[in-house]
Write a structure and sequence with these properties.
The complex is a heterodimer of chains A (246) and B (232).
Chain A (H helix, E strand, L loop, with lengths): L28 H14 L9 H9 L3 H13 L6 H15 L3 H10 L8 H13 L4 H14 L4 H13 L3 H14 L5 H19 L2 H14 L4 H10 L9
Chain B lengths: L17 H16 L10 H8 L3 H5 L7 H11 L31 H12 L5 H17 L10 H6 L3 H18 L7 H16 L9 H20 L1
Helix pairs in contact in B: 1-4, 2-10, 5-6
């Protein structure tokens, strides 16, 4: 799943570099921090007492709603944030751009968790903790907190619905997907497709209403035509395929 | 003449996480306790149930079984408590719960909500208050739990039967074929891909029109009924 808006320009140097000692399974936190700092330097990011808020805003998100949320957060905790926080936030952002799950989770645990809780940061990190760390029980309270703090965001609601689906609680998943569907914005095609697709599966599992399920999957495919699971499910719903590949 | 000596079978399966691999062993033990001991004789679980202790059932086990395994089996064969079945947190939950990361009372939002409601309520005296708590515990035992894939704690406690064992083996064989050579982005990714497959599979209707999840639930209910009969 892509985290960023597709309109967002790619930054120079945001590519993963090979870690030293690839045979070692030990995670070298200092090494990834150094790499992130190099990327920030290559992009000419300079943090100062009079610009850290603007730098954080410019780099962390292009989405208007998220920018407003981040601005509100920085204004609320101005006294406890600052240049160091902005640098740590942007390091986190670099890890997101190179899709380094271990670096994201480690950096959050070791550094970001020391600062006031930003619902926006927790939303992205909780997803990583659940989807890549495999720690659903740690991600869940984070997401529940985010849902309270961000009443208009579809993503944390989708993640909670998905978690209920994974737990085999289809009844519990449906209201989260419904809530997520209501909060979708025009620039959220990817997540929107996932919400509609997963909602169709859950609805079908619960009531067996094939017609509605087909309509939901079709709607998901309109948002994201390149969605193999949705295509496969559409075939299965039309009776020309199976839900599982055997 | 048929040789009825125990047979050692070795099977290797791929699992997305270490927890699920370890839990699969527990699931197998739960299945074995619900197998008819030999022919149509009662299962070890039924023997333990009817005698009120694990001892007689344990005596029926072949001596070759390792001590550690026997300890787990003895724990599973213990009489059930009269209050809440907290032991359910430590059962496998069968194939429907095999891959769910371990959780317990701390994560149990359902029980927490029930207790919070009970605490907020006022009662005429302490006796009534305690009776209400006991009723609540019984309700928890028999209510489908969202974190147990919709099984009740009692259905989790009773373990799976031969039909679920067949189905679980079928699923694990397919999983092994599909994923043992697959490259995953992370352990969490492996877990999610596995569980997505499981949730699709459990909704598959079988020849009789029932889905796999419905077959599993029906068999566990049947085992609970046989257990109640053995207790009577």
């Amino acid at each position: 799943m892509s985290r960023k808006s597709k309109k967002r320009p790619r930054r120079r140097g945001a590519r993963p570099r090979r870690r030293p000692s690839p045979t070692s399974s030990a995670f070298d936190y200092q090494w990834v921090i150094d790499q992130a700092d190099k990327v920030l330097a290559e992009n000419d990011i300079k943090f100062a007492a009079d610009n850290w808020q603007q730098v954080a805003l410019d780099w962390f998100t292009a989405n208007e709603r998220d920018r407003n949320e981040l601005a509100r957060f920085m204004a609320t905790y101005e006294g406890r944030l600052g240049v160091t926080w902005a640098r740590d936030l942007l390091r986190l952002e670099v890890f997101f751009r190179v899709n380094d799950h271990t670096a994201i989770i480690t950096h959050y645990d070791r550094t970001m968790a020391r600062y006031p809780r930003s619902p926006l940061v927790e939303m992205w990190v909780a997803e990583q903790i659940a989807r890549h760390g495999g720690d659903w029980w740690r991600a869940r309270p984070m997401l529940l907190h985010v849902v309270e703090q961000l009443p208009n965001h579809a993503r944390p609601r989708y993640e909670l619905g998905f978690m209920h689906y994974l737990l085999g609680d289809f009844t519990g998943a449906l209201p989260w997907f419904d809530e997520a569907a209501v909060q979708l914005t025009d620039d959220e095609d990817d997540i929107g497709a996932r919400v509609l697709y997963n909602r169709s599966l859950v609805r079908y599992a619960l009531d067996g209403d094939r017609k509605t399920a087909i309509a939901d999957v079709k709607a998901a495919l309109r948002l994201k035509p390149d969605y193999p699971q949705a295509r496969e499910s559409l075939r299965a719903l039309r009776g020309r395929g199976r839900w599982v590949p055997w | 003449m048929v040789d009825e000596r125990p047979v050692l079978q070795l099977t290797t399966y791929w699992f997305p996480t270490q927890d699920s691999g370890e839990r699969s062993f527990l699931m197998k033990l739960e299945f074995s306790l619900n197998h008819p001991h030999s022919g149509d004789k009662p299962s070890l679980a039924e023997v333990a149930c009817s005698t009120g202790s694990a001892n007689q059932a344990m005596d029926l086990l072949p001596s070759i079984i390792p001590k550690k395994t026997k300890r787990i089996m003895r724990r599973l064969l213990q009489p059930w408590p009269k209050d809440r079945y907290t032991q359910a947190y430590n059962c496998s939950g069968g194939i429907l719960n095999l891959f769910t990361p371990p959780w317990g009372e701390k994560q149990d939002e359902v029980w927490a909500r029930m207790v919070a409601e009970w605490q907020a309520k006022s009662f005429p005296d302490e006796q009534v208050r305690q009776a209400a708590l006991r009723a609540l515990e019984q309700r928890w035992n028999t209510t489908p739990h969202p974190f147990f894939a919709g099984l009740t704690p009692a259905q989790v406690m009773v373990g799976g039967g031969p039909r679920e064992e067949e189905l679980a083996d079928e699923f694990l064989e397919r999983l092994d074929e599909m994923f043992k050579e697959y490259h995953f982005e992370s352990e969490g990714d492996a877990l999610i891909k596995t569980v997505l497959l499981l949730r699709g599979w459990q909704c598959q209707p079988q020849r009789d029109g029932q889905t796999i999840a419905q077959i599993i639930v029906a068999e566990r209910d049947e085992l609970l009924a046989r257990r109640a009969q053995a207790l009577a």
